Amino acid sequence: MNLPPLREVIARHGLAASKALGQNFLLDEQLLARIAAIPGSLTDQQVLEIGPGPGGLTRALLRAGAIVTAIEMDRRCLPALAELAEAFPGRLTVIEGDAVKIDPATLFTGPYAILANLPYNVGTALFTGWLSGMVWPPQWTSLTLMFQHEVAQRIVAGTDDDAYGRLAILSQWRSRPRLAMKVHRSAFTPAPKVMSAVIHVVPTEAPAGVSPRMLERLTEAAFGQRRKMLRQSLKGLPGALAALETLGIDPQRRAETLSVAEFVSAARLLS
To answer: Quick check: 50 and 125 in contact, CB under 8 A?
Structure first.
């Protein structure tokens, strides 16, 4: 499908990226096609996109055969997205609103994939929200998300990594994240101050008997005072120190030395 260049669309609709909305537009169509290919075939697959902006990733998803529902809160972008909907009849639904306040389960009846060049200012909150559902496996089949490179490293980090922390545990205890692609800052308009990366996450089987809320509380307490020993950081969480003792985990260790499996075991006892 021949579409006008993205720069032309942005100029025609006066779509200067909004700093307040954390916008950085990706205009390289080959790069966007590579991102759309990360989850595998999207032919006739339902896809949720957050913050499509002028529709760069959206057009790559539509060209890949996806049926796209896009949530956009910047109404300046709606006319450009409406043109894209006309070019791909019946394959693009645009919802004006704040993705933080919209439950994707209300938008889809069956499985769907999530792909997004997430605005930096809400990316982590949306991501942890999608990971924290009580029902597992989730309705989403995969997450393919653009983050600041530093945040991406925190998602995939292991215990031997300085970036290892709460985000790694919440990402890895019942899903499998990988760093799929690094993206140079020069690929964006305007160029952000930091490098970016695309993370791909697929759900795995959830460990039995573990409350997601308890794991969140445990990791929040443990990493809330990251440099302190567990006996200090966990003393305010009822039963936590007894759980460490039952598991044979030395309370003089620090949170970053515990593996995902050890946190899961402690959360299971507390659950």
So the answer is: no
Domain limits for position 35: 6-203
Q: What tens digit of pLDDT does each residue of 5-46 get?
A: 888 888 898 877 667 666 678 889 999 999 999 999 999 999
Alpha-helical regions (H) of the chain = 6-13, 29-37, 56-63, 78-87, 123-131, 149-156, 166-172, 212-224, 230-233, 240-247, 260-270
User: Number of structural domains, the chain?
Assistant: 2
Residue 251 phi/psi, 5-degree rounding, is -70, -5
Q: Which of 179, 203, 227 is the last residue of a domain?
A: 203
In angstroms, the CA 79 to CA 101 distance is 23
Tokens of 202: 């697929």
pLDDT in tens, 39-87: 999 999 999 999 999 999 999 999 999 999 999 998 999 999 999 999 9
> Could you give the CA distance from residue 218 to residue 232 in angstroms, rounded to a whole number?
13
Q: Domain of 240: which CATH number?
A: 1.10.8.100
Among 101, 128, 98, smallest CA distance to 201 is for 128
Among 185, 203, 221, identify where a domain stops.
Answer: 203
Q: Check whether residue 139 and residue 175 sit in a common domain.
A: yes
